[in-house]
Automatic annotation (TrEMBL):
The keyword Transferase applies. This is Ribokinase. It comes from the Bacteria. The keyword Kinase applies. Residues 36-274 form the Carbohydrate kinase PfkB domain. Keywords: Kinase, Transferase. GO terms for cellular component: cytosol. GO terms for molecular function: kinase activity.
Amino acid sequence: MSLLVVGSVALDSVETPFGLKEDVLGGSATYFSTSASFFAPTQVVAVVGEDFPQAHLDFLKARGVDLEGVTREKGRTFRWKGRYGFQLNEAETLDTQLNVFQSFSPRLPEKYRDAQYVFLGNIHPELQSQVVDQVKAPKLVAADTMNFWINGSRPALLKTLKRVNLLFVNDGEARQLTGEHNIVRAARAILDMGPQRVVIKRGEYGALLFEKEHTFACPAMPIADVFDPTGAGDTFAGGFMGTLAIASQVNTETLRRAMVMGSVMASFTVEKFSLERLREVTRSEIRARFSDFKRLTHFEDLGPLEG
């Protein structure tokens, strides 16, 4: 099943306690499509500038990612610069240069309009709605958002939420969006806004999936060497959506498997800077880590409590 992502392809400069990398490959659509490409044919709609290295596009093409929807415009590529402390939970944004991304208006190639699974990356909610207008009959539309849109474009975001099936947010964004401190109450409030499902990402503490009658908690893989969490959330979404796309159905079991696969893919991303780890990871490693997740979370039924 075809999988479409609309988002950013960027150049990042990232500083963590373990090093500094400048002008490396980044962007929500980049992380998502690289992750999803292990599972399903993936199409990208994004914009880059004249300065964007062709080698990065060649890397995505080699992964089998369809780049017909990526345009190169006059000007500089979207750039983000951030810094992480030792906790690595949240980045401090040092600089954001929208450049050609500032005038980005997603236009889907005709063949993309038949996409069955759609991921709306972290872009303005009005642009997310424009994408929904252009796809014909998707089975599932998922969206991401952030505190900037929650604060500055709330009315547009609420309209978009009524048009999507699933929302990805982190725990802080869920609380900010709903005004609820308790994460369970926040999830239920988001479901009342329109989406049938919400995935709340909690960094090193894993992720939670909420539906009206179903909740699933997925841990994060305990990783000894965590160098750079940039893009982990989009990598998670790529593994999640890619798993649903190859299953060609959305039910309780596929959603649970998608949650685990999202965590598997995110666990690889954080092991090196940028997409360095995703460049080298193999399907056999993915299968092995998925099995590790099963062992990590398995336990037997409870026996008698009395002695």
